Fold this sequence. Notes:
Blueprint: E1 10-13, H1 17-29, E2 37-40, H2 44-54, E3 57-59, H3 62-66, E4 71-74, H4 81-84, H5 87-92, E5 98-101, H6 108-114, E6 120-124, E7 134-140, H7 146-157, E8 160-164, H8 170-178, H9 180-197, H10 202-223, H11 227-233, H12 240-250, H13 253-272
Helix pairs in contact: 8-13, 9-10
Amino acid sequence: xxxxxxxxxxxxxxxxxxxxxxxxxxxxxxxxxxxxxxxxxxxxxxxxxxxxxxxxxxxxxxxxxxxxxxxxxxxxxxxxxxxxxxxxxxxxxxxxxxxxxxxxxxxxxxxxxxxxxxxxxxxxxxxxxxxxxxxxxxxxxxxxxxxxxxxxxxxxxxxxxxxxxxxxxxxxxxxxxxxxxxxxxxxxxxxxxxxxxxxxxxxxxxxxxxxxxxxxxxxxxxxxxxxxxxxxxxxxxxxxxxxxxxxxxxxxxxxxxxxxxxxxxxxxxxxxxx
Length: 274
């Protein structure tokens, strides 16, 4: 079992899919007593579900949720910032609490202006968090205690992989890993379609494609080898794999990935202007 978090109370503002995924990881790893995890839910039905499923303390009153919490996780959608994070909530947060945000496109500066005097950690997790295979980039703001950074690493480490970065790199992280699952699902679907065209049953083709992506990613992470080295290990001279790779290169798959990342960066920049 992982070492428990050094927190007496952890608060979540937002108990949606991403918040639930993090709570699931924490409780499954035994990092905290579930009753010491307080969650602010939008509806009573959702609060009841979170309590019944994970044993957490789920309430409708966000001000009560954050009271005396040593860390407050902002697990709401970015467009809810102005309505959900009001002065009443900010005033209810303990003066020594660290604010941890999973909100995309909301800067540390903006969060610090709402929760004045609080240390802020900004993160960018992705949706595979829900199955314990997420990728979370963690960007601590100024004056964040090292203990709080280590707590953030533990929280997200029980839901997948973590990476410490600077906030200036968050947009690039979003374009690669934040949006990345969407790209991968397209590729899995395409590979499965190709398998069906080759004569495989649909379910078999999807399983073969999905596990191939999952296993290949695991090999990169666990061996530490460059993807090109691992690619060469399965590419015999004049063989079948190099024929397939040549077709991918002719189809500009590599260039499409460059374009996808740039499209996200361009769109993110455009959204900041609105």
